[in-house]
Design goal:
The complex is a heterodimer of chains A (175) and B (504). With 175 residues, chain A is α+β, with helices and mostly antiparallel strands. Helices cover 47% and strands 14% of the residues of chain A. Chain A starts with a strand and ends with a strand. In chain B, helix 6 runs antiparallel to helix 11, helix 12 runs antiparallel to helix 16 and helix 14 crosses helix 15. The longest helix of chain B has 47 residues. The chains are: A alpha+beta (175), B mainly alpha (504). At the A-B interface, helix 4 of A face helix 13 of B.
Chain lengths: 175, 504
């Protein structure tokens, strides 16, 4: 492990990038990161990234919301002060349940959506005053960048990436 | 080309034979007169039945009652000087009238001359008359049972093929890129439509000719002031609810749907042999027109064939609700038939992504159905207006398990099973969820028809299962015969290449 040198291989076409990613994986070079201006379909699969578990989180958050709504409505409308409001049966939760369903539904959706979004922000480390991390400003416009760690094989890597159709191959000392 | 496996053919024929036997048993076991009803009630009585039994024995004591019952005159019970007129209406608490006639007038009771007989309030309605009324009521319910079973099964299976046809039309109009490999499967399923339509129309005609009492508004004299069956609410609707107009509407709907099915398939086959896309464009336009026609006729159909069994009740979103019910059943059937054909190796280009898409539709439309079911239920439950809420009160009191059971089958089960992406690609999950959804929607239709026709005399027994088996057998026979008639892959559909390589 020489240092913390990395290679920036820059492409200007997503198809070329996909091919390069596949070749890099086949050559067993470890891809640190890929920066693209837009979602490239199938890139995660090509890079071998594990599928997201965000949907599972959302499902659980939804259940939390449903439980919270049920508990809240039962506590307020049935346990705490079971008034007769317009003849609605407030003897037990189930008897008046249809009236609570809109609340239960909305809370389920609310919890599922918002907590999932917050989870996404936390897991991907996004917040308002976060320092932007793009290694090359062109990656937000029309260029694609693959970052690969260098392990004493700088020469070999540079020539490898030049052969994958990169428009630019840079070796960068990372701090 | 698909070849109808002889096993499946035999299976469908067995279903039809068993079903026909079941239907026959249902009709043979239906009581012919009040005496039989009394026996049935006495045999069935559990818990609250003791009171019935006492009445029944009291009723048997009266010789003339027996005699008249044997006459098969279910509508009036004649005693020496006056007759106790029974209202046959199944759904209302009508005041009991005791009409005074002399014996000659009784014979001519149908004639309109003597309608303005004295109607006295019934201070002395005896237990016998009360019981008598109950027996007539039960007799009609029990006589309706095999008919209602037949009606529900026939309607449901026919609407499945209509649901598949509507889905097919939507796919055409939406220029869906994933579904063209499934078009021939959808056409195969909708091939049941003409068969189902003819049988269904025959049942409608028989109903119109008073072979049964499924529709209360068809009773003689409902719109004649002073008639024993007079019903002011129904009388106000006879401009719409009358047999000739009702049959004409039914004929227009059925013919319209079948014409679309016929020409759409014809054009699709012609497109295979064509050199340009003329037939495809024709189909596109025709499908768009069909969808407009469909949604109007579907709505009216739901009032005519389903909502009018409860002619005192009305709901504005009923048409959508019925639509969601058979639409999801149609999509589920497409998925099940596709999986069957795929498992036999006939659908080369169908992959798990196609199945995944169908499963998403099953999931989404199941939720949509629930949304409509709940909207209809909750609005009526919340406001609790007497003339509307009776609909749900009868269902909750007499049909508690089917009524809430179908919500579990049509909503809770699919939403928990089909929410998972990986599950939506597994054959056995789709088969299981699909079976539950189809059964659930059968129960849904059962819940729509039965409470108004058989009331608390419902039971899912031989007539119901027999009818369902018969139509399922016929459905399988017709659908898989139709699938053998054309290649299972459309050749020159502009989207077929995209569809073959569809991957999600």
């Amino acid at each position: 492990m020489s240092s913390n040198k990395v290679i920036y291989a820059i492409y200007n076409d997503d198809d070329v990038l996909m091919d390069a990613v596949k070749k890099t994986r086949a050559a067993h070079h470890h891809i640190e990161e890929v920066f693209t201006p837009f979602p490239v379909h199938g890139l995660d699969k090509a890079m071998g990234i594990a599928p997201t578990r965000l949907a599972i989180c959302a499902f659980i958050y939804g259940l939390c919301g449903l439980s919270f709504a049920t508990w809240m409505m039962n506590n307020i409308m049935i346990s705490d002060w079971p008034q007769d409001i317009g003849g609605k049966p407030s003897f037990s939760y189930i008897e008046n349940m249809p009236a609570f369903v809109p609340v239960m539904f909305e809370m389920t959706v609310f919890f599922a959506a918002h907590l999932m979004v917050i989870t996404f922000y936390m897991r991907s480390r996004l917040w308002p005053f976060k320092q932007a991390e793009n290694p090359d400003v062109r990656t937000t416009d029309d260029h694609f960048l693959m970052e690969v760690a260098v392990n004493n094989n700088e020469e070999e890597l540079v020539s490898f990436f030049q052969n994958t159709g990169a428009v630019e191959v840079k070796v960068i000392e990372k701090h | 080309m698909y070849t109808f496996s002889s096993k499946l053919k035999t299976f469908s024929i067995v279903l039809m034979v068993l079903g026909a036997v079941g239907i026959g048993i249902g009709f043979l076991n239906a009581p012919k007169d009040i005496a039989e009803v009394e026996k049935i009630l006495a045999a069935d009585s559990h818990g609250h039945g003791d009171a019935h039994d006492e009445h029944a024995t009291a009723g048997h004591g009266e010789a003339n009652h027996e005699a008249h019952a044997a006459e098969g005159d279910a509508h009036k019970e004649v005693e020496t000087t006056h007759s106790v007129s029974d209202s046959v209406k199944a759904n209302d608490t009508v005041a009991h009238h005791e009409a005074t006639h002399d014996s000659t007038e009784v014979a001519a009771v149908v004639a309109e001359d003597h309608h303005v007989a004295e109607h006295k309030t019934t201070e002395h309605v005896d237990a016998h008359a009360e019981h008598e009324k109950h027996l007539h009521h039960v007799l009609h319910q029990l006589q309706n049972k095999p008919w209602a079973a037949l009606y529900v099964a026939c309607l449901f299976i026919m609407l499945i093929s209509l649901g598949a046809l509507a889905f097919y039309a939507i796919q055409q109009v939406a220029q869906a890129g994933w579904s063209p490999v499934l078009f021939r499967v959808m056409q195969g399923i909708s091939a049941y439509l003409p068969w189902g339509s003819v049988i269904f129309f025959i049942i409608l005609v028989l109903t119109g000719l008073h072979f049964n009492h499924l529709f209360v508004w068809m009773n003689e004299g409902v719109d004649v002031v002073g008639h024993e069956n007079y019903d002011k609410l129904i009388a106000g609707k006879t401009g719409y609810l009358n047999v000739p107009f009702w049959l004409i509407r039914a004929a227009i709907f059925l013919i319209g749907w079948n014409l679309y099915r016929y020409y759409s398939r014809k054009n699709c086959l012609a497109q295979d042999e064509a050199n340009d896309n003329t037939f495809y464009k024709k189909n596109f336009k025709m499908s768009a027109a069909f969808l407009v026609f469909f949604i109007v006729t579907e709505s009216i159909m739901s009032w005519d064939w389903i909502m009018s069994v409860d002619p005192h009740w009305f709901s504005t979103l009923f048409g959508w609700y019925v639509f969601a019910s058979f639409f999801v059943s149609g999509i589920t059937t497409i998925a099940l038939v596709t999986l069957y054909l795929k498992s036999k190796g006939y659908l080369e280009f169908v992959n798990t992504s196609h199945i995944h898409d169908l499963a998403k539709f099953m999931f989404g439309i199941s939720v949509f159905w629930t949304y409509l079911w709940f909207s209809q239920f909750m609005l009526i439950w919340y406001s609790n207006i007497p003339e509307e809420v009776t609909y749900f009160i009868t269902r909750i009191e007499d049909y508690n398990l089917p009524f809430f059971g179908m919500v579990v089958m049509n909503f809770v089960f699919p939403i928990l099973i089909l929410i998972n992406t990986d599950f939506k690609r597994l054959t056995w999950i789709i088969i299981m969820a699909g079976t539950v959804i189809l059964l659930g929607h059968y129960v849904d239709f059962y819940n729509m028809i039965m409470p108004a026709t058989v009331g608390d005399q419902w039971f899912i027994g031989i007539p119901e299962i027999g009818s369902l088996l018969f139509f399922v057998g016929l459905f399988i026979f017709v659908v898989f015969s139709a699938l053998t008639k054309s290649p299972l892959l459309a050749k020159r559909n502009p989207f077929i290449e995209e569809s073959k390589h569809f991957h999600y």
